[in-house]
């Protein structure tokens, strides 16, 4: 292993105010560290950019520590081990770990998971077979407790989690699956390729009216990735004893002064359940999720879309593009030609 190997790493240079700017990030070159006992050095092949990363750029307490100024960013990545001092992980193994935003990562072997990139592409373990997939599965089936023959609405339905949540609802027997997205192209994608029964473009306005037209008999389950106006509109359409799984609120991540929800009293009159959740609390479901999702993929019943950026230089632009909704499905940064 070349002891002078150069690593390129993205650092947080400033805490964003509102929508992040490229100047909030800094790409540095530094020597790649060599593994000590129980460690591996991995060349990252693909890395993830996720909406939750925006929250970690704020210096506020949360379920995970915020990113530190002048320190490297991190996130999900899959790479190939190039040096190992662990008997459990060999050179050449493909591993899933949490030190993305860099070309090479030094990781404790006990904190990685070996994945089979012959069975599925490396990117799948950051998407459909990874955190977004389990988030969609657990959020819909365990948190929202979706039952067959119910009407399901998914906001942000063309994104990494939403595109899977809507398909899971369909495969698990929902009567009607409705999605929202931010362009006519994405609306067509939801209905013509993913099998949503109906979809609308929230940028066309009158979200409440569009939802009323598509769900005249109300909504039983709302899988919320967006918050804001769409959550307010969904509350008006929820049926009595409906359930809302709050996965994200991306419409408000970059607008700290956004207007609040004005109709929460409907939680009382309609006896609704609205619950936020984290995938971290649902790891026990991973085996069942993997088995069912793998079966759907093998049978061709689950469609997967990915949007790729290429090279560590484009990682920030990929992240900003994801926040703007430029992605169809999961946004992935390819760092090598292994996908």
User: In the CATH scheme, what's the topology name of the largest domain?
Assistant: Quinone Oxidoreductase, Chain A, domain 1
What percent of residues are in strands?
Answer: 25-35%
The low-pLDDT segments are none
Distance between the termini: 23 Å
Notes on the structure:
The chain has helices at 52-56, 131-143, 162-171, 184-192, 207-214, 228-237, 266-269, 286-298, 315-324; strands at 6-12, 25-31, 39-48, 77-84, 94-97, 104-108, 113-114, 151-154, 176-181, 198-201, 219-224, 238-246, 273-276, 306-310, 330-334. Strands 3, 4, 5, 6, 7, 14 and 15 form a seven-stranded mixed sheet that branches. A six-stranded parallel sheet has the order 10-9-8-11-12-13, with helices on both faces. Helix 2 (131-143) crosses helix 8 (286-298). It has 339 residues and is α/β, with parallel strands linked by helices. The mean pLDDT is 96. It is globular and about 65 Å long. The two termini are 23 Å apart. The protein folds into two domains: 6-126 and 305-334, Medium-chain alcohol dehydrogenases, catalytic domain (Quinone Oxidoreductase, Chain A, domain 1, Alpha-Beta Complex); 131-281, NAD(P)-binding Rossmann-like Domain (Rossmann fold), CATH 3.40.50.
């Amino acid at each position: 292993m070349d002891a002078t190997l150069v690593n390129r790493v993205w650092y947080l240079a400033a805490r964003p105010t509102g929508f992040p700017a490229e100047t909030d990030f800094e790409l540095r070159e530094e020597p790649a560290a060599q593994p000590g006992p129980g460690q591996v050095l991995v060349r990252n092949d693909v890395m993830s950019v996720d909406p939750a990363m925006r929250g970690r750029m704020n210096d506020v307490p949360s379920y995970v520590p915020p990113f530190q100024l002048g320190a490297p960013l991190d996130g999900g990545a899959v790479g190939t081990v190039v040096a190992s001092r662990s008997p459990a992980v060999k050179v050449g193994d493909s591993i899933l770990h949490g030190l993305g935003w860099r070309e090479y990562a030094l990781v404790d072997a006990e904190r990685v998971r070996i994945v089979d990139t012959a069975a599925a592409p490396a990117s799948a373990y950051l998407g459909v077979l990874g955190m977004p997939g389990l988030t969609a599965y657990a959020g819909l089936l365990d948190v929202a407790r979706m039952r067959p023959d119910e009407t399901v609405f998914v906001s942000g339905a063309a994104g990494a989690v939403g595109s899977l949540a809507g398909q899971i609802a369909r495969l698990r027997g929902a009567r009607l699956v409705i999605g929202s997205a931010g362009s006519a192209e994405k609306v067509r994608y939801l209905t013509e390729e993913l099998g949503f029964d109906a979809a609308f473009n929230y940028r066309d306005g009158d979200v409440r009216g569009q939802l009323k037209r598509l769900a005249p008999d109300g909504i039983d389950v709302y899988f919320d990735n967006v918050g804001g106006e769409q959550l307010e509109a969904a509350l008006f359409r929820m049926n009595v004893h409906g359930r809302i799984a709050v996965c994200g609120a991306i419409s408000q991540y970059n607008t700290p002064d956004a207007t609040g929800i004005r109709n929460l009293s409907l939680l009382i009159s309609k006896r609704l359940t609205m619950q936020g959740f984290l995938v971290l609390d649902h790891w026990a479901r991973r085996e069942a999720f993997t088995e069912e999702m793998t079966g759907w993929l093998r049978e061709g019943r689950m469609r997967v879309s990915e949007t790729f950026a290429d090279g560590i230089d484009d990682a920030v632009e990929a992240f900003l593009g994801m926040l703007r909704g430029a992605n169809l499905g999961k946004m992935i940064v390819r760092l090598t030609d292994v996908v």
